Amino acid sequence: MRLQSSLGRIQYLPERTDLEMAGYLTIAKVLKVHHKRGTADVQIIHTGDTVTSHEHHEGIYAVPIMQTMSGHSEKRGKAWGTITPLTEGSYVILTFLDKMKKRPILIGQLPSLQPERNVYPEFYPLRESVAGHDRQEAWKQLTVFPSQAYTRVDGESNVEWVHANKSFFAMFRDGHYDVMDTEDHHLALDRSNLSEDFESDLLEAQTPAKLLYVHRTSFDDGQTTWTKFFLDDEGTLRITRDNRDEQLTYLELQEDGAFRVRRQLDSPLHGEGENYSELQQAADGALGFTRVQGERSASVGVTATGEVNLTHSSGAQIALDENLYLEAGPGGKVYSESLQQFVAEHHMVVTDEEPQNPHQNLIWIDTSS
Questions:
Q1: Domains along the chain?
Q2: CB 234, CB 208: distance < 8 Å
Q3: C-alpha torsion sign, points 305, 307, 312, 315
Q4: Other C-beta atoms lying within 10 Å of the C-beta of residue 302
């Protein structure tokens, strides 16, 4: 190599043929991906040459994979970037740094020319100026992952985020989908009605997934409180408010349709504590409200068939169906101003001993036997 400082460029000697790769592009096939290093072993299609790196070197000497974004800040000590999936058997484009054959770099992946092997639109031609299907397809941004999950934003801003297990999020204008009911009604819009028909062949990806969204009120781990939205893989939905005060409030819709709202005053763990209030609706339609304070409790309930029950931990209870049942707990008494007034008006006495000097028309109910 001869340096010419006056010209500000580098001139290579003619005998260095390994440096004569200026502007050269070639197609290669991926043999192995070294995920830790972001490199790949490849075989060049035209010549059959290979560029590989032994696993002992963790892919250091393989071909670097160019990403759409990559960076690092020495001052902040932070790295950022993207990772684009690359699989064995993919066809890629190579170029060469500084004209050197020994310094290949992978700059992109090639789609297949066979329509069934790529994710391009099936329709032709597409006219961008035509509203509706043409514009949506022509201007869409689509990313399909190897699991067949995908994200899509079409040319008119309709959005689909679809998991490989067919769970999805959709945001769309009215009339976008060719289905009568696009709300949350029974047998309304579902995965089969969406814009793309990719279907996973991986059993692990097909498994129902859990969803958790956590909102924090502070960046400080020691100060933050949380609002959490959780959906488990069997369908239970729970919304929780945790104020970091050893208390908890949550709403839960269970997979069988049962529903409850609970406020715990002595525990931040779901379903625990001895000081709480809870409102429940069972799957069969029964309703209930419970208040618990240690060993003391009270509850009001309406059964699935319409009976009303009010119970207290003391043993007192009221039940109502066709009849009214009223019972005091051990050592307890029944107090009722209405009942006392009724007795006074009707001269009624309930006792186990015969009244002394009874009034005229007195009704005596003997409880001695």
A1: 2-109 (2.40.50), 114-207 (no CATH), 211-327 (3.90.930), 337-366 (no CATH)
A2: yes
A3: negative
A4: 16
343 exposure class (CB count in 10 Å sphere: 0-12, 13-18, 19+): middle
**Per-residue tokens: 173:** 């204008």
Exposed e or buried b per residue across 213-230, where buried means at least 16 C-beta atoms within 10 angstroms of its C-beta: eeeeeeeeeeeeeeeeeb
Q: By CB neighbour count within 10 A (0-12 exposed, 13-18 middle, 19+ buried), where does 280 fall?
A: middle
* DSSP-assigned letter for residue 65: B
307 vs 286: CA distance, rounded Å: 9
Which tokens in the block code for residue 137? 């397809």
CA 347-365-340 angle, 5° bins: 45
Average pLDDT over residues 309-332: 89
Task: Name every residue whose Cβ is closer than 8 Å to that of residue 74 and which is 6 or more positions away in sequence.
Answer: none
- Per-residue pLDDT reduced to its tens digit, 51-81: 999 888 889 999 999 998 989 999 999 998 9
Among 349, 348, 351, 355, residue whose Cα is nearest residue 369: 351
- Asked whether the beta carbons of 320 and 307 are under 8 A apart, the reply is yes
Half-sphere exposure at residue 127, Cβ-oriented, CA atoms within 13 angstroms? 4
User: Pairing state of beta strands 248-253 and 226-231?
Assistant: unpaired
Per-residue pLDDT tens digits for 167-191? 999 999 999 998 888 888 988 999 9
Query: DSSP secondary-structure letter at 19?
Result: G
CB 149 within 8 A of CB 200: yes
